[in-house]
Design brief:
With about 800 residues, this protein is of the alpha+beta class. It contains 18 helices and 32 strands.
Length: about 800
Amino acid sequence: MAAHRPGPLKQQNKAHKGGRHRGRGSAQRDGKGRLALKTLSKKVRKELSRVDQRHRASQLRKQKKEAVLAEKRQLGGKDGPPHQVLVVPLHSRISLPEAMQLLQDRDTGTVHLNELGNTQNFMLLCPRLKHRWFFTSARPDMAKVADTILFLLDPLEGWDSTGDYCLSCLFAQGLPTYTLAVQGISGLPLKKQIDTRKKLSKAVEKRFPHDKLLLLDTQQEAGMLLRQLANQKQQHLAFRDRRAYLFAHAVDFVPSEENNLVGTLKISGYVRGQTLNVNRLLHIVGYGDFQMKQIDAPGDPFPLNPRGIKPQKDPDMAMEICATDAVDDMEEGLKVLMKADPGRQESLQAEVIPDPMEGEQTWPTEEELSEAKDFLKESSKVVKKVPKGTSSYQAEWILDGGSQSGGEGDEYEYDDMEHEDFMEEESQDESSEEEEEYETMTIGESVHDDLYDKKVDEEAEAKMLEKYKQERLEEMFPDEVDTPRDVAARIRFQKYRGLKSFRTSPWDPKENLPQDYARIFQFQNFTNTRKSIFKEVEEKEVEGAEVGWYVTLHVSEVPVSVVECFRQGTPLIAFSLLPHEQKMSVLNMVVRRDPGNTEPVKAKEELIFHCGFRRFRASPLFSQHTAADKHKLQRFLTADMALVATVYAPITFPPASVLLFKQKSNGMHSLIATGHLMSVDPDRMVIKRVVLSGHPFKIFTKMAVVRYMFFNREDVLWFKPVELRTKWGRRGHIKEPLGTHGHMKCSFDGKLKSQDTVLMNLYKRVFPKWTYDPYVPEPVPWLKSEISSTVPQGGME
């Protein structure tokens, strides 16, 4: 009897293990020497109970709340710097003097005007609110150091085109704490005031979502506004929180004995941001980097409580910090906080002094020269078949391999015939153009034509038209250039190379570097250096002037033009530099074209950069923002994509905002692009592409005769190894030249279309131009641009 066998669908259950457990020996054998993770006990891991977790969370909330309150009390308090408020009117109908007059309430506190008596820059001391403010009118550089920006809005429109331009610049640079105030709403009828406020709130939402609008028409509303400014939570800007900075309230200049144009500049103001060390370098915005001699500690000119004034943070304790350097200045009656130590003071050296002999080859010895001569003699010997009895002199005149002359003659004749046909076609086209008829029409002259023409700069108009044409051609035919006929292509493009693949082909970043690269500095690991410097700023205690102290800085070797600009009303702002920030390197910035600007911006065109706290001139290169190791050069700043601007400039540690301006002939600055600092990397390769184009003349199955890419036989042979491509996706290479006028036989991976174009890509690495200029005077205030020419007098500064 046959045994029953289960079918393929029979269920197979897992066998029962019988309750056996593995012993320690079997577990060790299976583990093959691997050790299990050590499990920490509950006590070691400090796992808190639910009640303790709630208690810890409440403590953390309490600490954060106390930190915010302490920051509020310090800013504008008796031990901190005055609360600096920048007042920015956003509409031409806003009256800035009226707003300033409401804020200068004698009943609220004491008002101190500046030395020139300007009512738009004043200090307001309010003992009742235990706060002091410093109000300034709208200046471009003031937004970099202002604690709060007070925007004045129009009740009907909010802001005009000038205000929108101003907001674009401020948002791109980084917006600190701000407050919105509406001026003139009380002048409207009572029935329209509520509707006007609703409409204005809705219109403001696109720029300032969920922000409250305050009024500024009466003295009571001004008091409420001051209370809001005092109790507002502060927003921080990263580029200034890690550096000490100072806004100059008073400036004095002592010329040097040798040269009256250079001397010691004494800058007095309140320290902000971080502790100010005298051994660090000082950057004066728009003028460059300088060294400090000493830091003095005069009395606070604007104390919050004049009667019960105490020396700032007990000067005896303050002097203990710098006891070795603190001396009494008997001539001026000032206390010297700190004097510069020549051994610890940072150097002003911004560039590496290159050694012209570094990397040079040594002169060869006589033995090496004799070996080279022998090698040349041996390599120059040619073996020829000559008749018997021929001397060496007669053998030099015998040509080798002359049997190919017939084929060559045929090719020459073919090429010459094609050239004649092409010249006949061109002459026919020219004659047909001459036969075309043109209409003539009379245009009436306007009375104001002569007056209008006087304002037009014909040379500037012609240059702008040419740039528009070049930008249009670049959009239609990217990177395409015409092969010159007067210069051989192998000479014109001798610095270029062909690449099998732009993305994957290797390119050494240290190859063929320019002489300017010997002058710059490069980090071995920029990211680690940046992290270590920021960690040192946050954790290490620095000796020097503390935040909130009123000090006088003695800055050496400063030009007298800095004082002249300050006396004319230009604000003076100084930032303390972090280590290495005075050294030159290659900065890469990600920028995007501002939609309000339509003028073409060409690469290597001189622009004005606002990079963090710096302002300088430079000529950038524009390249694609990709993750590859090679980045294609863009000849123009395009509006549809983010690009990377590469310049020679001093090292700046990101994060830092970037604004690009272009100076017009009338001195005004127009915003070109905005972005941020990406990296400091000289090894980032910007590759320029050149595309040579040719046209198929005769097309066979997979072969074609191409002309107009080159114009002589030697150029075809020179570029023969470079791969070809077409606009319709075909790929191929050059087989051989035909004739002497640049015609060539090419093979492709498919049949060409008659309307297709044959292209050849050539590449070379490009570098920016060294045009860095730190001396950039402050521009015309942004509220005085061309679009605000209709602003009534008195409405703005």
